[in-house]
Amino acid sequence: MIGGGQLARMAHDAAIPLGVRFRLLADTPQDSASLVVNDVVLGDYRDLETLRRFAAGCDVITFDHEHVPTEHLRTLLAEGVNVRPGPDALVFAQDKGLMRAKLDSIGAPCPRHRLVADPADVTKFAQEGDGYPVVLKTTRGGYDGKGVWVVKDETEAAEPFRAGVAVLAEEKVDFVRELAADVVRSPHGQAVAYPVVESVQKDGICHEVVAPAPDLSPELAAEAQALALRIAGELDITGHLAVELFETRDGRVLVNELAMRPHNSGHWSIDGAVTSQFENHIRAVLDLPLGDPRPRQPWTVMVNVLGGDYPDMYSAYLHCMARDPGLRIHMYGKDVKPGRKVGHVTVFGDDLEDVRERARHAAAYLRGDITE
Amino acid sequence: MIGGGQLARMAHDAAIPLGVRFRLLADTPQDSASLVVNDVVLGDYRDLETLRRFAAGCDVITFDHEHVPTEHLRTLLAEGVNVRPGPDALVFAQDKGLMRAKLDSIGAPCPRHRLVADPADVTKFAQEGDGYPVVLKTTRGGYDGKGVWVVKDETEAAEPFRAGVAVLAEEKVDFVRELAADVVRSPHGQAVAYPVVESVQKDGICHEVVAPAPDLSPELAAEAQALALRIAGELDITGHLAVELFETRDGRVLVNELAMRPHNSGHWSIDGAVTSQFENHIRAVLDLPLGDPRPRQPWTVMVNVLGGDYPDMYSAYLHCMARDPGLRIHMYGKDVKPGRKVGHVTVFGDDLEDVRERARHAAAYLRGDITE
To answer: Where along the chain is ATP bound (chains A, B) (predicted)?
Structure first.
């Protein structure tokens, strides 16, 4: 796996019971995954020679993030490396402009959008619809709210163009809530769909996930799952695909973002599903039969633990374990910095209100927002 | 953790989400746990200097097996190392003679037993009860059926004395079945009890575990749990304690063996309980609050995968995943040798017959006993 973040850390954890040998390409020995994986190559994922050296001993390579240059992946593929997902699929997660064009071509519902040339063109885009505010995104390089702006006039619209990357404009969707439809697909075409979840964002970062999404109509849930499976098939994706969706006031879903790797919207599945997203991603990229994605209990709530003002979480960690023996704690081994994802907690059970309260309380306590 | 077997491998897997740094002392880089742990010290656990060097960077040391010399552990303890469980407790799992004497002293029910001096003394022991057959055990060094003999006369009784180790004689209990009561205890005295399980042995090796034990009277289950908790307290054990029990025809339980580490009877808990034995063992030795030991569904069945005649399990591995998407597979990364524990499978659900059939089928298929 290329990339040493928490996704690789959790993928390693899932690879162990499968008996799969897991090799990591990471930036530093202090990366979240470097701290626990035994076979680590240190190097720069933007360097082709490093990638070649890393891939040489691997049956297949896959990703913790979407930042490996597409052209390098095409070279590796041409040289016989199993790259999964392949560059022809991954590019739609790397480039939001290409992603929108592809989704349009297969008839997947999206917010109104187009590439824009400059601030004046943004104003033109706004006027083509309901006016400002408009959402602007750099087509490449963004994640966790970075590379996304909500601008309310042409002056603000100037900012995204400073990066020198193509800019995509999208209507600001007046959504009821955000959903995610996560699916996993293997090279020979087997696919599984996790239940559609509700995803609550804070400052552009996934904060809380409820599985399954409460009060979602069975029809819309089935539609979202079918849409995600169709995207996975049409884009020929191998591995985990997260389709982040807006649920609109008139009862439709629109595609917000795609992620072709394990995703924060699927962390609940480690404790909450028969087979986690990490295990199924590994199974998929190795073309092994996929595991049951169904939830193990009526409700699972996952809340991210963001770094807060207290760098030492130890006493909070003790408190949370003592308060709630059913709490599932996942720490990523990272130094605590304000706003950084340093872990997540999961609670499952029969009573949504109870489960949600416990998960929120633990995450808030670990962050230092409450001390009781 | 000292010892590089599958117990250490699974403990590492449980340590990752807790954010606990896990260091391993193993014999070789090919040990089951060495293959996945990133911080491995290679060395001989019988060598005091090696143990000192290993312990130097650890907050606490614990064990994958019970073979570290007691005197070395006493030295480390005297030098300020946190040894958990401590040598004064661990010695009762290392020496079956001391174990029986201690259990007698606290009134724990055991099979009739005493240390025997020679084959003639074994015959005397037999005549004190119902005669031969008699069970003989070397007091130190045995595991998985090694160091245990069932002898039917004085000639056969000669064999165990050849090792030059003290020999314990025990009545051959006419049991209904074997049970295990697994508990975890932390240094400050918190303890949790897993449901009592039924353990099916084959050739002295744990083969199948059903959690909870079917048709066990609630009174006897509670008695077995209370007994295990009492032993953990009286022996001042830190970490996981497996109390292997005989259920007698007259509805009592007798203590067969003690193991002070994660144990095969608790592997079901990885997929079947809210908190696994491995996680709770780690929490206990670090004196963290313990997690909920309760099962997540009515039935969980774990079956060991023993090496069979086919060294390459890959096609069977594919078959089992494809046949049963709910199957939980745990491979230990070991080379396949006939009779060697190379993995286990777990199935959980509402219907015991269905769950047991699926787990047994997968284990038999992986071993090569059936090919369908």
So the answer is: 96, 137, 170-173, 178, 256-257
Domains A6-83 and A175-367 belong to one CATH topology: no
CATH of the domain spanning A6-83: 3.40.50.20
A239: closest CA among A267, A274, A280, A272?
A: A280
Put residue B189 in one of left, alpha, beta given phi > 0 → left and psi -120 to 50 → alpha.
Answer: left
Cβ–Cβ below 8 Å for B296 and A297? yes
Looking at residue B210, what is its pLDDT? 98
The pLDDT, as a whole number, for residue A372 is 67
Domain ranges of chain A: 6-83, 112-171, 175-367
> What is the 8-class DSSP label of residue A172?
-
Q: Which CATH code fits B175-367?
A: 3.30.470.20
Domain B112-171 has CATH 3.30.1490.20: yes
Pair of tokens at residue B290: 């313990």
User: Are A17 and B329 inside 8 Å of each other by CB?
Assistant: yes
Looking at the partner chain, which of B36, B318, B326 has a beta carbon nearest the beta carbon of A274?
B326
Q: Is A341 annotated as a binding residue?
A: no
* Contact between chains at B17 and A13 (C-beta distance less than 8 A): yes
B219 is in an annotated binding site: no
Render pLDDT for A167-188 as a digit per residue (tens, 0 to 9). Answer: 999 999 999 999 999 999 999 9
- Those of residues 255-284 in B touching chain A at CB distance below 8 A are 270, 274-275, 283
Tell whether B357 is in a known binding site. Answer: no
Across A254-276, average pLDDT? 97
Chain B positions touching A275 (Cβ under 8 A) are 325
Query: Are residues A267 and A199 in contact, defined by beta-carbon separation less than 8 angstroms?
Result: no
* A234 Ramachandran zone, left/alpha/beta (phi>0; psi -120 to 50): alpha
Q: Is A256 labeled as ligand-binding?
A: yes
pLDDT reported for residue B284: 98
Q: Which mean pLDDT values do the consecutive 10-residue runs of chain B (372 residues) have?
A: 98 97 97 97 98 96 96 97 97 96 98 97 96 95 77 96 92 96 96 98 86 97 98 98 97 96 98 98 98 98 89 89 98 90 97 98 91 72
pLDDT of residue A143: 62
Residue A22 sits at the chain B interface (C-beta within 8 Å): yes
B349, β-bridge pairs? B299
* Inter-chain CB proximity A18 and B274 less than 8 Å: no
Residue B13: its chain A contacts at CB < 8 A? Answer: 13, 16-17
- pLDDT tens sequence across A354-368: 999 999 999 999 998
At a CB cut-off of 8 Å and minimum separation 6, what does A158 contact?
Answer: A119
Q: How many CB pairs under 8 A join A and B?
A: 103
Instruction: Choose, out of A10, A16, A300, the residue to mutate when testing the contact with B (most B CBs < 10 Å).
Output: A16
Mean pLDDT in chain A?
95
CB contact under 8 A, A274 and B332: no
The answer to whether the CB atoms of B16 and A36 lie below 8 A apart is: yes
Has B154 been labeled as part of a binding site?
Answer: no
